[in-house]
Amino acid sequence: MMRLHVFIVFLVLGATAFAWESKKANLAGLDGFVERMGAGIREQALGNTGVADREAQPGAFWNPALVASSRQGIVMSVGGEQRSMGRTGTQVGVQSGVGTRGGVGFALLGRGDTDFEVVNEEDEDLGQAYPYFYMAYIAVGWRLNRYDLLGVSFSRSGENLGVAQYYSELRDDGQSPTSYNLGWHHTWSSRFETGMVVRNLGFNSDLSARWTRNPSNGSESQALRPKTLEMGATYSTKVKGRPFGLRVEVLDYLLADTLFVFDPDWHYWTARFGAEWEPISGGWLRAGFDSKNLTCGLGYQFNLRWNKKPWPLQLDWVFVYETLAGQWNPVSVGVRTRIP
User: Fold this and answer.
1) How confident is the model at residue 6 (pLDDT cuts 50, 70, 90)?
2) What is the rounded average pLDDT of the residues 64-71?
3) HSE-up of residue 39 (Cα within 13 Å, Cβ side)
4) Is the pLDDT score of 169 beyond 90?
5) Residues 231 and 218: beta-carbon distance below 8 Å
6) How far apart are CA 328 and CA 160, in angstroms?
7) Using CA atoms, how far apart are residues 141 and 186, in angstroms rounded to an integer?
8) Using a CB cutoff of 8 Å and minimum separation of 24, what contacts does 200-205 make?
């Protein structure tokens, strides 16, 4: 009962964070939109939740502690998105246990645009550009005991705008310095899990992930990826005798380039919610809510065999409705497997 009360507290915190969301400055002017769009087709169907879920993929992105939960074989995940307005997304992840307590993982997230028209000052068409943005993660995790996992991941972002061929003074490529993320996961019981991640920490006195960009020859601009505190909980039960799970996450983005500030005007709060039901063995129905975006999805696992060993192959699909933009995105699919 105590664990259910804790989950209810998370729900209240999530509702409170969502209520505050509309009152805070948005994140559009800060770096890290690739990260904020999330990863994993299954996790996107669950409202972009994964911090407190041992099954979340790629673990190197969601919570570096989770890579220590892979004790048998190599876990791999691949996902692709074709969103409206020519937007694309790709996700690749792999993780494996190391010894009896450790684990390592890698994740690569990409976002692109296939319909970006370049014009000059006279509004004349110059051609097409194909901008692409990515974030890469390398994670190491350690299992302290039966209940606690700890982890750290190192991440870098990059971009290629694809417009330098039309404007010689502009630069296409750019990379951020390495930042790091700290994660913790605790299993309270077979029904209740919690997790926490502190994202985008830098190697400086303010622990800020900041750097200087050079968008064009002879010019500079400052970039900042906001520190983020992400806390989540997962509660599992049964509905009509079949497994059912609820997930909630609360996020706090620090918008100031400083170690910490208590002023609420420099914080942006939001929440995510997800639900998953397995009405048939190996088949899932999912729904979620991510910062006003609605999601739903399906999943099915094929139980194959590899060298006479079980080889699960899971297919996932998600539908995303971006409420504020009024955009429907039905084409997002993913595959995940465990190689024994």
Assistant:
1) low
2) 88
3) 30
4) no
5) no
6) 26
7) 13
8) 200/32, 200/35, 200/155, 200/225, 200/226, 200/227, 200/228, 201/227, 202/177, 203/177, 203/178, 203/179, 205/259
d(CA 81, CA 148): 34
Q: What is the pLDDT of residue 166?
A: 72
Spell out the residues 6+ positions from residue 294 whose beta carbon is closer than 8 angstroms to its own. Answer: 288, 320, 321, 323
For residue 258, give the nearest of 206, 185, 332 by alpha carbon: 206
- What domains can be seen in the chain, in order of their start residue? 2-339 (2.40.160.60)
Structure tokens at 155: 């991440």
The predicted structure's pLDDT at residue 26? 58
Per-position DSSP letters for 326-338, written without gaps between them: TEEE-EEEEEEEE
Let me know how many helices (H) and strands (E) the chain has, helices first. 4, 20
Rounded to 5 degrees, φ, ψ at 133 are -130, 145
Q: Which helix (H) or strand (E) holds 157?
A: strand 148-160
pLDDT digits over 14-62, tens only? 555 554 554 445 565 567 677 777 788 999 999 999 999 999 999 999 9
Nearest alpha-carbon partner for 140 in 152, 157, 125:
152
Query: How far is Cα 206 from Cα 200, in angstroms, rounded to an integer?
Result: 12
Contact indicator for 216, 170 with CB cutoff of 8 Å? yes
Q: Cα–Cα distance between 226 and 18 in angstroms, integer?
A: 19
Q: What average pLDDT does range 191-204 have in this prediction?
A: 94
Neighbours of 78 (CB within 10 A): 17
